[in-house]
Amino acid sequence: MARTASNRVAAGIPAAAGLTSRQREAIAGYFFVLPDALGLLVFIGVPMILALAMAFFDVDGFGGYRFVGIGNYQRLAADPLFWKSFRVTATYVLWLVPALYVSGLGLALLVKRTNAFNGLMRCLFFMPQMVSLVVVALVWQVLAVDKIGVIPRLVSALGLGSFSFLGDPQLALFAVIFVSVWFLMGFYMLIFLGGLQDIPSEYYEAARIDGAGPLQSFWYITLPLLRPTSFFVLIVSMVAAVAGAQTFDLVYVMTRGGPANSTMMTIYYIYQQAFQYNAFGYAGALASILVLALMGITIVLFVFTRGGRFNYE
Amino acid sequence: MSRPVLTLSLPQIRIVRGVQMLVALILALMTVFPLFWMLSTAFKEPSEVFSMTLVPQAPTFQNFVYVFTEVNFLRYLFNTLLVSASVTLIALLFHSMSGYALARLRFPGREVIFMTMFSTFLVSLPVIIVPLFILVRTLGMLNSYAGLIIPAIFNAFGIFLLRQYYLSIPRELEEAAVIDGAGYWRIYWSLVLPLSKPLLSSLAILFFLTNWNAFLWPLTITSDQDLWMVQVGISAFKGQYSASWNYIMAASTVVAAPTLILFLIFQRQIMDSIKTSGLK
């Protein structure tokens, strides 16, 4: 008896008589969920609502608020730099998502068979993921220094001419895309390897006996059976492209949105408006557009996967 | 071999595999080349930084000495270690608690709570950075360890993975404990937690890495240099010494070394936990 009582106290459950075991279980359940639920509510839920609410105020850097109605949205609609950032982000997404799909799946197929050599290769492909994005950005900057960096030198040695990869508005965004792929491809390779593992090898056996070549088995077995993985990869890489850490960190360290705003991603523009120009309300309005976009993507994810295919009970 | 056009003969398969290995090797070497170049440049004299030598002709430790003596790098490393370790420990405790409750305990609203938590999964920091900053400022946590640590704890990914894991544990184990008269906290602490050690250790590594590499949040809420974390320190260092790439690469090596060493030790665990999760 005494033991049970002390355990109840330890679980934060008052040893009140008259509680059924079901009630005790429920109380324990709430107690266990509370810290995370509270934390997620305060540090993710509230900011999301704030982002939507702030957009209707003029907020200065010192906490002064003034209601401006849809003023921020009017400003946004007429702000060429916002539209520029929108186009830059869209271009980034449209290149990065397919590039990650192809590189991730390609690498996964290349090192699919389990052996020591492929194990080592997987490690090497994944290694960039382990390095911080700030360091990644710095390292690629060294490699791309105009004229004397390794890459410009190799490119001109190949007779392709001389380029300023981070200084040319035509090229800088593609340099950022390239580095993003380099950084992220190992992660998607692992996701695809996980998906490939789930395809029973008997299918390939049967196809081979029926006379299917490697291309045919890829087209008729691998791709269709990878559909859940592919869907997951597309959604996650799309979110990562719009608002992933790499989008901000790489731009912040490598280009600061330049040259000539050619790498001015929306999330970098938001940061700039808030923390360089103290236009918190306007930044909130910009962020609310992103919140809506991401909510849209989340809903698509839920609908297509019936509440998350990850929810197998 | 009745259909020689469609199926490959054994020697052909060998050739294909050989070519595959060669391609993989070349691509892998290209992938790690930038990291190798970082390491190499960190040991080069200033005059050699932009020569095409793979290995420094006259390797020097001077760059590292400079980084540690001219900049408060040890302080940044200490801050990063403190913050990353705290976030990891608290997150593992909270997430395993809620993961256990969401998987195992029956209470009204459980599914709604889980779905609501899961729906925050795609909300990334850059999107809510402005309101989060204002919130944390209002709570008086700017330029404090609390401000660095507390908001970084909560993420749906850890909760989700732990819940999935607890769903797979056989119920009989707990039922025996319930019959023994054990309270829920004791079941969690001395039965469920030990059972989930493998997943907890994988998550510990991932959380630690994520926080060690975090940049945007520390950048936003710490202006006090004594509270800087390494990523902020190194990006400011770049601003100050923008042309001294040998120093910058030495600093980068110092910052990247702990995570790369962790990876070398735990590569199997790290890669497996990502592969099987199918989730970030």
Order of helices and strands of chain A: HHEEHHHHHHHHHHHH
Structural class of chain A: mainly alpha
Assigned CATH class of chain B: Mainly Alpha
Number of domains of chain A: 1
Global shape of chain A: globular
Q: What count of helical segments of chain A does DSSP give?
A: 14
Could you give a short account of the major beta sheet of chain A? 2 strands, antiparallel
CATH superfamily placement of chain B: MetI-like
CATH architecture of chain B: Orthogonal Bundle
Global Rg of chain A: 25 Å
The CATH topology of chain A is what? MetI-like fold
Low-confidence stretches of chain B: 1-5
Please provide the count of β strands of chain B: 0
How far apart, in Å, are the first and last alpha carbons of chain B?
Answer: 45 Å
What is the average per-residue confidence, as pLDDT of chain B, rounded to a whole number? 86
Low-confidence segments of chain A: 1-16, 307-313
Q: In the CATH hierarchy, what is the class of chain A?
A: Mainly Alpha
Distance between the termini of chain A: 36 Å
Radius of gyration of chain B over alpha carbons? 25 Å
Chain pair sharing the greatest interface: A-B, 114 and 105 residues
What does this structure look like?
- The complex is a heterodimer of chains A (313) and B (280).
- With 313 residues, chain A is an all-alpha fold.
- Chain A has a single domain (72-304), classed as Orthogonal Bundle (MetI-like fold), CATH 1.10.3720.10.
- Chain A has helices spanning 2-10, 21-54, 71-77, 80-110, 116-126, 133-144, 150-157, 172-197, 201-209, 214-225, 227-243, 245-255, 266-275, 280-304; strands at residues 57-59, 65-67.
- A two-stranded antiparallel ribbon of chain A has the order 1-2.
- In chain A, a hairpin with a 5-residue loop joins strand 1 and strand 2.
- Mean pLDDT of chain A is 84; it is low at 1-16 and 307-313.
- Chain B is mainly alpha-helical and 280 residues long.
- Chain B has one domain: MetI-like fold (Orthogonal Bundle).
- Chain B has helices spanning 10-42, 62-70, 73-104, 110-119, 125-138, 145-153, 156-167, 171-179, 184-195, 197-212, 216-221, 230-240, 245-277.
- Residues 1-5 of chain B have low confidence and may be disordered.
- Chains A and B meet through helix 1, helix 2, helix 5, helix 6 and helix 8 of A and helix 1, helix 3, helix 4, helix 5 and helix 6 of B.
